[in-house]
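Students often ask why inverse folding is considered easier than folding. One informal answer: many sequences map to the same fold, so there is more than one right answer. In these notes we will look at a single instance of the problem. The structure comes first.
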């Protein structure tokens, strides 16, 4: 095992604990830790992926009810990296008032977190990018917040299938070109994503 791989393994084997949940911009925590935010459509497998990254089953509660997460949840990984779980989007049954509240919260987070290093957009491998995903990408482009696509549920694809990435990447100024294809249940792509996130702690 290389030194970098060993350092990555040790980082994600350390304690990761829930810090707080913020339902309003005024509740965002003061922190100097670099942050990585996870966002995606409801039920895309975001919670399962975060749990797989830190080797925990129930750090982030996995729900089968779309739209359950209504706040921004902060998790401290070994006082080295803050993992930020953003509310899911694209759930049709959410009210206009809830959607507006969500927009205010997410916009406020993006505009007030200089320590935010990367936003990871979760995309279900089986479905590819949807209009709601493109809306989030446009929002992140406008905020000049670097973001990366993380394809989830790779185990649900047939061996001959690959994640759908056929869109014009040149239209997205803040998009990082490298993407990851993952499966939380089968631990596919988890080590590679861990290594990428560990590099943020050294920046």
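Output (designed amino acids):
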């Amino acid at each position: 095992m290389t030194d970098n791989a060993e350092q990555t393994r040790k980082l994600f084997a350390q304690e990761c604990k829930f810090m707080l949940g913020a339902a309003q911009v005024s509740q965002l925590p003061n922190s100097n830790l670099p942050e990585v935010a996870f966002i995606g459509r409801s039920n895309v497998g975001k919670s399962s992926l975060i749990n797989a990254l830190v080797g925990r089953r129930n750090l982030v509660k996995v729900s089968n009810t779309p739209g359950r997460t209504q706040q921004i949840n902060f998790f401290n990984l070994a006082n080295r990296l803050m993992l930020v779980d953003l509310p899911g989007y694209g759930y049709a049954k959410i009210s206009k008032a809830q959607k507006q509240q969500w927009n205010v919260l997410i916009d406020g987070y993006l505009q007030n977190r200089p320590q935010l290093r990367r936003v990871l957009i979760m995309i279900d491998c089986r479905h590819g990018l949807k209009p709601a995903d493109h809306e989030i990408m446009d929002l992140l482009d406008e905020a000049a917040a670097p973001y990366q696509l993380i394809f989830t549920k790779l185990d649900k694809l047939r061996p001959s299938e690959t994640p759908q990435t056929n869109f014009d990447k040149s239209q997205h100024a803040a998009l990082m070109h490298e993407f990851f294809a993952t499966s939380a249940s089968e631990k596919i792509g988890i080590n590679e994503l861990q290594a990428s996130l560990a590099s943020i702690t050294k920046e």
